[in-house]
Amino acid sequence: METTRQAKISRLLQKELSEIFRRQTAKTRGTLVSVSTVRVSPDLSSAKVYLSVFPSAQAQTVIDSVKASAKTIRYELAQVVKTQLRKTPELQFFLDDSLDYIDNIDSLLSPRPAADDK
After folding, report:
1. In terms of CB atoms within 10 Å, which of 37, 58, 88, 108 comes out highest?
2. 64 by DSSP, 3-state: which?
């Protein structure tokens, strides 16, 4: 069960990380990275950040580069939220593939054209 403080910090981190990724992906044409969910631990020391990447073919390379630059992203985040948070949580990045999963389910459930019986 998430406390009110955890929920507020999650929303703050999601908003600010979304802005950071928007600025970074504006430089790279054709790739869109959005922060779908942020989950903060009860002691507020770590946060799990779930990223959705479009197009999904580039998702793994984007996640790998984000993980490689996690300390830089955390520093940028700390500069923005330093008035609201005493300590910026450690960030762990994960790929949110729920949209791909939904598309897969939709394609499996969609009616297929019937073959002509001869």
Report:
1. 88
2. helix
